[in-house]
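During the no-cost extension, the postdoctoral fellow (Dr. R.K.) reprocessed legacy sequence entries with the updated structure-token encoder. One reprocessed record is reproduced below for audit purposes.
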Amino acid sequence: MTCIEARGLRKAFGKTIALDGVNLLVEEGRILGLIGPNGAGKTTALNAILGLTPCEGELRVLGRDPWAERERLMRDVCFIADVAVLPHWMRVSQALDYVAGVHPRFDRAKAEGFLAKTDISRTSKIRELSKGMVTQLHLALVMAIDARLLVLDEPTLGLDILYRKQFYDSLLNDYFDRNRTIVVTTHQVEDVEHVLTDLMFINRGRIVLDCSMEEFESRYLEVTVHPERVAAARGLKPIHERQVLGRSILLFDLKVDHVERQQVAALGEVRTPSITDLFVAMLGNKQGSKAAETQGVTR
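Re-encoded structure tokens follow.
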């Protein structure tokens, strides 16, 4: 079943094109990582999905028009923004009471379970909590709601590495199942790499990469080239080259460059690149941006 489907999605703010003909297909039960630089269109895309921003083109979320049917849609959707907005005068226990009173799908016991892993006191007022604790509280409240679609926009911003790992482990173990769908944007790509099922790069309002993680792992190869084979490696036209400690590291797109895995393996030490490495290769400089525009694919 399709969770999100967009065709020709376009949004302009004056002369600035935030979304430029975006096509998007997210199946139910997937975890999509939407990765892009600042100003790429990520937040605008999420706002469109949440019914907060009207756009040109076609967009259906859980079978509904998010702009025209937002009230019904939000019964099945939860959203965590990069800045947790909770009333500062409220106590933690009152926040739990409030969400339990307004949302029929809120599981208080589950929220309490998330909070038990933190140092947050139920009697504390929100204004007394640190920025990281406010984020932890917000995550606990939202993840305790039984939603079909969870949208995360920089959900762990401001949290230390230990809680970020704990959050994503909880996301997989305590929240995600094959009936739920998650869309996440983050600049801390290394934190989410192990949880994603699908990957999407967006730049200047356009989707420049759209693939499953299975395709990512089979399609892209990074090789630390033996010095005497650098010229031969460059002859295979890698999409990116960088220098680390005097060694040349080349990244290949086996599909676009029509290079065989065995050819690359003969050049040196091979591995699957990280998402960050591929992102930098495609978008990190003018040449990378050009490669992204010409080599980005959709499923």
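The chain has two domains: 2-204, 214-295. Residues 131 and 158 are 7 Å apart (CA to CA). The remaining legacy entries will be reprocessed before the final report is submitted.
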